[in-house]
Specification:
- By secondary structure, the chain is α/β, with parallel strands linked by helices.
- Among the domains are: 118 residues, Alpha-Beta Plaits (2-Layer Sandwich), CATH 3.30.70.2190; 67 residues, Alpha-Beta Plaits (2-Layer Sandwich); 154 residues, Up-down Bundle (Glutathione S-transferase Yfyf (Class Pi), Chain A, domain 2), CATH 1.20.1050; 119 residues.
- It has 46 helices and 27 strands.
- The strands form 6 sheets. Strands 12, 13, 14, 15, 16, 17, 18 and 19 form an 8-stranded antiparallel β-sheet that branches. A 5-stranded antiparallel β-sheet has the order 5-6-10-8-9. A 5-stranded parallel β-sheet has the order 20-22-21-23-24.
- A hairpin with a 4-residue loop joins strand 5 and strand 6.
- Helix 8 runs antiparallel to helix 19 and helix 37 crosses helix 46.
- The longest helix is centred in the N-terminal third of the chain and has 23 residues.
- The chain starts with 16 loop residues before the first helix and ends in a 6-residue tail after the last helix.
- The N terminus is likely disordered.
Length: 1018
């Protein structure tokens, strides 16, 4: 096999002639946003959270309303009637709502501003790209919130919610999105702006006059309503979820005022492009209580919910055993486990989450007491117990588990995964249990497994059958299952799409709307005369040559994935199973999930985007005849290595490998995705594997060699530390380092007297022979400290502090040799060297660990390599756990809380992203340790610091690194001047010193200070 086989030209379809001409005209017309036609950008917009993949011609990112008007005006010209556009928000749709083979109009990158908040009148004006949680964070200080509540609220945009008329938990109390939209500003094809609002009879009459586009729309829709009001009342079902998508039933409010807003809500971008929305806000309930009821089966939970609805809770959510089991394996379970205790029969097989909320605490508690009395007296359904979560924080913790249900379902093991195509059915709540019983029989008849959860108070249950979409036989089930579930919902007086929009399922619209469908076609025609706006969804004009889409005539993502050979597919694990749930698009700046996405707002630079690009790269490799699995297993020859050293990427500019490389180059390798992503997509792992292959063909920059092998150089650099430190301060040396190696802001080495500390505390070198000779009693009071090389040479005082702290706790300390753990090698794709180093270290660790004496590291990122990356290497089957300091101190530090009051300085802990995501309890461990010495430690919720090892020291990343820092860490540091901040990560402390000139201590230093003021342990 030759190395040239890895090169694959980008042969994906280019822009069609009319779309290319349109984009050229758009640039000339003054469009200010980005216009992108590269394969990678188009590819990451070709999928959402559905089973479909539609490859767009281009993606445009408007910056403001004027850009939308420019685009719509141009599209309305006769020469561009073949151009189709589709708006896109968070890309979390489960039915391909925003997918198109035309031009994607991404409103999330720039049009995400909150324009006005009116606290007195309780409304807000926003652009469509504003994320729901972003909005609620802005208005929460005023005691307000925007309903309803979505499981995807941390990445779902307001525009997307309006376009699908989204609803969720609490909708029986708070209603759907349209119930809270006061007015919309919508850009129509041709460039006119429709400002929808409530119109009395006189205002409507005035709007219907004339020949303008807006006048024709009002006249057409008002005429249809007046003519067909009886049919509308008969056809639209009396459900909480109603019948969205041109909602004729709610065109008039209770006072008889006419409002097109209800029509546009749920229209999925088929009528116009949202530019602005005015939204109604609600007062946040001051008090809330969640009753968590456990059952022996899911059907018992469903049947009980039918009676519980009559007790008027705010909401009832249900979860089945499959979702519960997956939640128990997720980090989220740590915060909710106490609410779902096991009994003698084991864990619950179904749960109902019943919420009560209000502003009057006494009245609320009376209502809950009455509810609990019902549970005690009613024996119609067996229950296995209940717990209460009281207060907004506790309730939110439980709901956080419920919110992850969609993503968690994607983390089942095996090739068959839950697929969203019949997963938001809605029926009258009193019929839900019987409906689900038949639904389960249907799936059982096909031999399919499934997961279920949903809003039982609204009659909505999310059901996702497990299918292997790479298997043509399973893919062929989409049609019969869709037809069968559609028929089942019809029999129960319900809907196939109760919550997540129609999208590709629009083929069922004509039957649902029956005699009203021709009028929907007229509405589509008057808004969008030539069917250019997201065609194929909801309604198609009778004269259009773009019919409604069908569930089995749109390209399935599985059909693309099928082209990747099985060994390669299975070898790349979780990356292949990214289901597009979009958890990595988390808006929250204080959440560690994907800092590169937050800093750039570029979806290519997210776990979902990177996984999509990797799948495409593997598909292209297979198409070119390259066996990636064999390539990884083979060792390159000397000639191949020499060729790679000489070959630059400019030699093959169209190789798609470059686009994947550029996406992965922005990854911080912080590993938040490996735990925060519900599917556990491990970007750092496949990043390292790809870089290893990429650089067999293309030359590495000198920076990679320097950074990758820096651990081996540190002992040599330490011998001339004064010279090195002096050099880092010289501008000429800094400029040379940036030019030759692309590195900036290199830290200085510290010359603390480690040898003297070891002498004072009687520290001995760790050797297997010496450790083996210890008595059992001596071993129980001994510890092996193994500081990583970065801490050893750049923060030597911290090593000394840990030695003293362990000694003061009564332990004999043995200092292990600081060896290269290989993390920089792994990050930069030197996988052969990394594996060799890991195997050497594994043998050494086994020799030390054979004594049974605890081994303790220091820096979280370096120490956790032994638990994570090492265990993936064949041949390293067993390895002693290398503990982090807090894990060791929990067993070693005696309780001395009585020695001090803990008053005075407020201590605030800023966690390292790798540590707090890999070990969910690390922060609480530090809190427990501080409590033992009479101190209180506050855990600050923060995102990534932006340094992440050497990422922030690379010149190409400095701007991104600073943005990431300022988004979370900088903001916290700037507004809390009276507190003492602590950080466990070396890179985090380096970043704070770089951008704030502030030195943060490790929490070990505070513990040591307290122990120095107390008697030493005997």
């Amino acid at each position: 096999m030759t190395m040239t086989m890895i090169a694959v030209l980008d042969k994906m379809p280019g822009n069609s002639g009319h779309h290319a001409a349109f984009l050229d005209a758009l640039r000339r017309a003054g469009f200010r946003g980005e216009i992108e036609t590269d394969h990678d950008t188009r590819l990451v917009h070709a999928t959402d959270n559905s089973i479909y993949q539609r490859y767009p011609q281009a993606v445009v990112f408007p910056k403001h309303r004027a850009d939308l008007v420019c685009l719509a005006h141009l599209a309305g010209q006769a020469e561009f009637r073949d151009v189709v556009v589709a708006p896109r928000g968070g890309g979390t749709g489960t039915n391909g709502q925003s997918l198109t083979n035309g031009i994607v109009v991404d409103l999330s990158r720039h049009m995400n501003r909150i324009l006005e908040i009116n606290v007195e009148e309780k409304w807000v004006r926003v652009e469509p790209g504003v994320v729901k949680d972003q909005l609620n964070a802005a208005i929460a200080p005023h005691g307000l919130f925007f309903a309803p509540e979505l499981s995807t609220s941390n990445r779902a945009t307001i525009g997307g919610m309006i376009s699908t008329d989204a609803s969720g938990q609490g909708s029986c109390t708070y209603g759907k999105t349209r119930d809270h939209v006061l007015g919309l500003s919508t850009v129509l094809i041709g460039g006119d702006i429709l400002c929808s609002e409530k119109l009395d009879a006189a205002a409507l009459s005035a709007q219907r006059q004339g020949t303008s586009h807006v006048a024709r729309i009002h006249d057409c829709v008002a005429g249809i309503y007046e003519q067909e009001k009886e049919t509308i009342e008969r056809v639209f079902p009396k459900l909480n979820r109603c019948l969205t998508g041109y909602d004729l039933r709610h065109l008039r409010d209770e006072e008889g005022r006419f409002d097109l807003t209800a029509l546009i809500c749920g229209s999925e971008g088929t009528l116009g492009l949202l530019a602005e929305a005015r939204l109604n806000l609600l007062a946040i309930p001051k008090h809330s209580i969640l009753v968590n009821i456990r059952y022996g089966s899911f059907m018992e939970a469903l049947r009980d919910a039918r009676a519980l609805i009559g007790l008027s809770p705010l909401s009832i959510e249900t979860i089945d055993s499959k979702v519960l089991g997956l939640a128990m394996q997720d980090f989220v379970w740590n915060s909710v486990e106490s609410y779902f205790p096991e009994d003698e029969a084991g864990p619950a097989k179904g749960i109902n989450l019943v919420e009560f909320a209000g502003h009057d605490e006494v009245a609320l508690r009376e209502k809950v007491a009455a509810f609990l009395a019902h549970l005690k007296q009613d024996e119609t359904v067996p229950r296995r117990g209940h717990t209460l979560a009281e207060g907004r924080q506790a309730v939110s913790q439980v709901y956080a588990m419920r919110k992850r249900a969609v993503g968690l379902l994607g983390n089942v093991q095996g090739e068959a995964r839950p697929q969203p195509f019949v997963e938001d059915t809605a029926v009258p709540p009193e019929k839900l249990a019987d409906f689900i019983a038949e639904f389960r029989d249907l799936l059982d008849g096909h031999g399919l497994d499934y997961g279920m959860f949903g809003h039982v108070d609204a009659g909505v249950l999310h059901v996702r059958p497990l299918l292997n979409m790479r298997d043509p036989k399973d893919a062929a089930r989409i049609r019969p299952l869709s037809d069968a579930v559609f028929a089942l919902t019809r029999r129960y007086g319900g809907l196939l799409w109760g919550e997540h929009g129609k999208g590709v399922r629009s083929e069922y619209v004509p039957e649902i709307f029956g005699p009203l469908y021709p009028f929907l076609q007229k509405i589509k025609k008057v808004f969008d005369p030539y069917n250019q706006l997201n065609p194929g969804k909801i309604a198609a004009p009778a004269s259009s040559d773009r019919p409604l889409l069908r569930v089995d005539n749109v390209v399935l993502r599985g059909a693309q994935d099928r082209q990747i050979p099985d060994p390669v597919w299975k070898g790349f694990g979780t990356a292949m199973h990214c289901n597009g749930n979009g958890a990595c698009f988390n808006y929250d700046q204080d959440d560690p999930m994907c800092p590169s996405w937050k800093a750039t707002r570029d979806r290519r630079f997210s776990p979902k985007g990177r996984a999509s690009l990797l799948r495409e790269w593997l598909r292209l490799q297979a198409g070119a005849g390259t066996d990636v699995a064999a390539l990884e297993a083979a060792r390159p020859s000397a000639w191949q290595i020499l060729g790679a050293l000489l070959r630059r990427r400019a030699a093959a500019p169209l190789d798609f490998s470059h686009q994947l490389y550029d996406s992965l180059a922005t990854c911080l390798a912080c590993k938040s995705c490996t735990s925060q992503c519900p599917v556990k997509v491990d970007v750092p792992d496949f990043r390292a594997r790809f870089l290893s292959l990429y650089h067999r063909r293309y030359a590495r920059p000198l920076r990679d060699y320097l950074v990758g092998t820096i651990e081996y150089a540190l002992p040599l650099m330490a011998r001339c530390a004064p010279l090195y430190n002096a050099g880092t301060r010289l501008s000429v040396v800094q400029a040379l380092g940036k030019r030759l190696f692309g590195l900036v802001d290199m830290p200085a080495m510290q010359g603390a007297k480690l040898a003297e500390t070891c002498r004072i505390w009687g520290v001995q070198p760790a050797s297997p022979e010496l450790l083996a000779a210890l008595t059992p009693e001596q071993k129980s009071r001994s510890v092996i400290l193994m500081p990583d090389l970065f801490t050893r040479y750049f923060e030597t005082p911290l090593v000394c502090a840990l030695i003293e702290l362990a000694s003061r706790c009564g332990y004999d300390v043995y200092l292990a040799e600081s060896r290269a753990c290989g993390k920089p090698l792994h990050v930069h794709g030197f996988l052969g060297l990394f594996a060799s180093q890991a195997k050497r270290n594994a043998s050494w660790l086994r020799a030390l660990g054979a004594s049974g004496v605890a081994i303790v590291g220091l820096d979280p990122a370096m120490t956790l390599v032994y638990r994570q990356e090492y265990r993936k290497i064949p041949g390293i089957e067993t390895l002693p756990n290398v503990l982090l300091p807090q894990e060791f101190l929990l067993r070693a530090l005696p309780d001395r809380s009585a020695t001090g009051t803990g008053k005075g300085t407020q201590h605030v802990f800023l966690g390292h992203c790798t540590e707090k995501t890999a070990l969910a309890g690390s922060g609480s461990d530090w809190q427990a340790l501080f409590a033992r010495v009479g101190l209180t430690l506050h855990l600050e919720k923060t995102g990534c610091c932006g340094m992440s090892g050497t990422f922030g020291h690379e010149a190409r990343n400095v701007d991104t690194s600073r943005i990431i820092f300022e988004q979370s860490w900088g903001a916290h540091l700037d507004r809390q001047a009276e507190k003492r901040f602590l950080a466990s990560g070396y890179s985090c402390r380096s970043q704070v010193k770089r951008f704030r000139g502030q030195t943060l201590d490790h929490p070990l230093m505070v513990l040591l200070e307290r122990l120095r003021g107390a008697p030493s342990a005997p």
